[in-house]
Amino acid sequence: MFKFKRGATFAPTITYTPQEGGLATLVGATITSRIKDKSKQTAVSLVPTIAADGLSFTLAAQGSTRGWTPGMKSWDIKVSIGDVVFYTNTVIFEVVEPETP
Q1: Using one digit for the tens of pLDDT, what is the confidence trace for 5-54?
Q2: Residue 30: which of 48, 56, 42 has the closest Cα?
Q3: In which element (H, E) is residue 16 found?
Q4: I need a labelling partner for 26 at 20 to 30 A (CA). Which of 18, 33, 36, 80 fits?
Q5: How far is Cα 10 from Cα 45, in angstroms, rounded to an integer?
């Protein structure tokens, strides 16, 4: 789990490590990702950008995060090609208020 300061840019870069029997790279894959609050009422879709070598990707929230409510969030990431899902994970993190104005 990690903490994210509300109002900061949310655009983490994730490194992909190929697994035996899995995808060699992410080139041609579809990455879908969104963040939901604890009540599951609010969701933010993230925009993926896959690196040219297919070994990393960035998931960016569009617009400001100042409107994100403090508290626990679940962040889902899914990698697929067509109907075949190669990877899925859920990360739990907390949105916190900034300490300094």
Answers
A1: 999 999 999 999 998 988 999 999 999 999 998 877 778 999 999 999 99
A2: 48
A3: none
A4: 36
A5: 12
